[in-house]
Amino acid sequence: MDQGLRDYQDQKKSIENFFPRFPSKPDFKGKTILEFGCGRGAFSIDLAKENPKKIVGIDTKKEYIEFAKKSLEKNFSQYSNKVSYVCDDINSWKTELKFDYIVTKEAFEHTIELKKVLNSMYNLLNPNGSIYAGFGPLYNFFNGDHGLTKAFLPWFHLILPESFLLSKLNKTREKKINSIEDLGLNKYSLKEYKDFFYNSKFHIDFFKTNCTSNKLAIPFKILSKINFLEEYCTFNIFTVLQKKKPY
């Protein structure tokens, strides 16, 4: 199995855990949906089963979008009139489309200019439209580097100097990097995410951290209640942001 198909299968497996972590699942029938950070397209296909009016998946990685388009054409042609994919930066994407919902799964921890992205999302939503976002691990969690820094030990991507990590990585990389952000990680803290969401144009309908039923997460849930450990024991965020209709 090639890497693209493995990524697709991994994305597909994680879908069933997404909406149960929110208070309720939206009724997508007849609605327009934008999936931000659609990857190889598995979530968009799953959402197509909800009988929406239209789904657009957007991602900046060309290889992901090419895979998604080919998969749609080859395996899910019955949804070709509802689903489409765009390779673009949401901040520069030119479109006349407006959406009832923006859904994003495991993408905000990779989003470098989140404040700017939230503004772009606000402009793409219809009045009373909502964002359903779930993502993690956060960078300050024990595996918040997604293994990309190759620090290996828990929290060592925070303990070891960034210059050391970059130097070590660049020894084996053909394309050299100058920062952790070049790996596709924004390094935002829990506090920064809260600031982005609570100081945005959106009304926060729902905000919850450490959403999981996995019993192995219980120690982190307990430790995150201690103020000075909250940053380092919070592994995910699930939130619903609503664009309020102007009066």
What does this structure look like?
The chain has about 250 residues and is of the alpha/beta class. The chain contains nine helices and seven strands. Strands 3-2-1-4-5-7-6 form a seven-stranded mixed sheet. Helix 4 links the parallel strand 4 and strand 5. The radius of gyration is 18 Å and the shape is globular. It starts with a helix and ends in a 5-residue tail after the last strand. The model has no long low-confidence stretch (mean pLDDT about 95).
Summarize the structure.
By secondary structure, the chain is an alpha/beta fold. 31% of the residues lie in helices and 19% in strands. The radius of gyration is 18 Å and the shape is globular.
Task: Describe the secondary structure blueprint for this structure.
Layout: H1 3-14, E1 32-36, H2 42-48, E2 54-59, H3 62-75, E3 83-87, E4 99-105, H4 114-124, E5 125-135, H5 156-159, H6 162-170, H7 190-198, E6 203-209, H8 218-223, H9 230-233, E7 237-242
Parallel strand pairs: 1-2, 1-4, 2-3, 4-5
Antiparallel strand pairs: 5-7, 6-7
Largest pleated sheet: 7 strands, mixed
Total beta strand runs: 7
How big is the Rg? 18 Å
Low-pLDDT stretches are: none
Structural category: alpha/beta
Mean pLDDT: 94
SS field, number of helical segments: 9
Residues in β-strands, percent: 15-25%
Helix coverage percent of residues? 25-40%
What order do the strands of the largest sheet run in, or round the barrel if closed? 3-2-1-4-5-7-6
End-to-end C-alpha gap: 54 Å
- Shape field: globular
One letter per element, helices H and strands E, the order comes to HEHEHEEHEHHHEHHE
